[in-house]
Amino acid sequence: MTPVLVLMAGQLTPVAVITNLLVAPAVAPATLLGFGAALVAPVWPDAARLLVIPAGYAVGWIIMVAGWAVNLPFATMPWPAGLPGLGLLLLTVIVAIPVLRHRAWRAIALTAAAAALVAVLVVRPIVGPWPPKGWLMVMCDVGQGDGLVVSAGQGRGVVVDAGPDAVAMDRCLRRVGVQDVPLLVLTHPHADHVDGLPGVLRGRRVGAAVISPHRPGSRSEARISATLARHRIPEWTAPPGTRWRFGPSELTVLAPDPADGDMNGQGEGSAINNSSVVLHVRWRSGSILLSGDLETEAQDDLLRRLPVRADLLKTPHHGSNRQSPAFLASLGARAALISVGADNDYGHPATSTLGLLRSLGLTVYRTDQSGTSRSSNVKEAWWWSLAAPDEAVQPGRFFAKIQSGPSSPVVSRC
């Protein structure tokens, strides 16, 4: 199975062996009882109900083991895909066999592996616990898309967009310890913001979902509504001025106004981008503007209607070239976060946008490039790190974490 996974997915799953051993006793009962229930259900429904009870326990065990395994360190490891990856795997096996057969070499290899495991499981959590105590916001690195979590208290988080990948989004929420989502905001129905929705719903209670009041009638929108209805999650629209308070975070809707019509732009998806739900999130220590995928027309409209100030900016539309200099300058932000996939086909972020942000004095942080960085003021009361401690930024990992403090951040690279 491992060679097949390398060819198809470009990753290794070291936990697969132990996981398969743990679930093996439950596979046969789940399969046979489920198949039996399907056979007898048309003629004897009561008997089928009895058969699915033990089958359900067997399936539940498999699900529980899978949920445990996916959160283990090195549950999945990046590996070259296709034939080069298969060749590298074969070379690794060829080298490993003589090493493991030789007693002295085997002892050295096992000692090194044990030391690495101790470093991952014991030393790193002590040096850099994740999430940090008092975290306020996490931006998940979901590749080419947006997925953010705003703290709503212990074990709770407001999710703003779900990225394009359900697995990456679920892993992000698990690592941050979010089990309850009182509010889910899907800024607009483009795949890179909503296709990860099943990952948000996996094993979590979601109180309600806020979507844009402008309905394009797209297939993606219909799928979102069907998914929310199936999970009995209320679907709301919220006019500008709507405000919620969850734990340390205050969220205010700034746009779009349901009374306004569609705001077209230059691109095919510009009208949907310009209908993005825009949020201003405020904490005692500062604020951030979550601007969805707003393009130039909607940015200028927001500037005319409601001038906004924010310490941090989630850069609109992954840093595309459709930015309003006047709007960005009006925010007074000190740092700009850009959620973007490496080597994406859209040219995000645009060189012109990066130049504009830097000319306005903003420090730019990108999910496709940034390693570990911090910002702090002289009192070290507010700090944030771009990527989990000592980890390279990869899809499904974390990009930004912000910890509370009494004053605005001064960004500096470590």
Shape: globular
Mean pLDDT: 80
Helix content: 40-55%
Distance between the ends: 42 Å
**Main pleated sheet:** 10 strands, mixed
The count of strands amounts to 21
Question: How many H/I helices?
Answer: 13
Q: What is the topology, as strand order, of the major beta sheet?
A: 10-9-7-5-4-3-20-19-18-21
Overall structural class, as computed from helix and strand content, comes to alpha/beta
Task: Kindly provide the radius of gyration, computed on alpha-carbon positions and rounded to a whole number of angstroms.
Answer: 24 Å
Unreliable spans: 371-414
Strand content: 15-25%
Describe how the helices and strands are arranged.
Layout: H1 2-9, E1 11-12, H2 16-40, H3 45-70, E2 77-78, H4 82-101, H5 103-127, E3 135-141, E4 147-151, E5 157-162, H6 166-176, E6 180-181, E7 184-186, H7 191-194, H8 197-201, E8 205-206, E9 209-211, H9 219-230, E10 235-236, E11 243-246, E12 249-255, H10 270-273, E13 278-283, E14 286-290, H11 296-305, E15 312-314, H12 325-331, E16 335-338, H13 351-359, E17 363-366, E18 374-375, E19 384-386, E20 397-403, E21 411-412
Helix pairs in contact: 1-4, 2-3, 11-12
